[in-house]
Amino acid sequence: MHAQHTFSAGDLEKYSYCPMSWWLSRGEKEDNEAQKRGIAQHEELSRDLDTFTNGMRTASTYGKVIMYYAVISTFLAIGSISILEYGNKLLISKLLLVLALLWLIIASSLLYVSIVVKREERGQVEHMAAYLALGALALSAISITMLLKGELLSLLLLVSSLIWLMGASIYLYYTLLNEERAKEVEKRRELRGKVIYSGDGSHSVLYSQDGALSGRPDFILEDEGRIFPVEYKSGRQPSAPLFSHMIQLSAYCKLVEDNFGIRPEIGYIQYGEKRFAVEYDGDLERIMKQELQEMRHAVETGIVHRNHDRPGKCLGCSRRDLCPEKLA
Ligand code: SF4
Question: Is the pTM higher than 0.90?
Answer without folding.
Answer: no
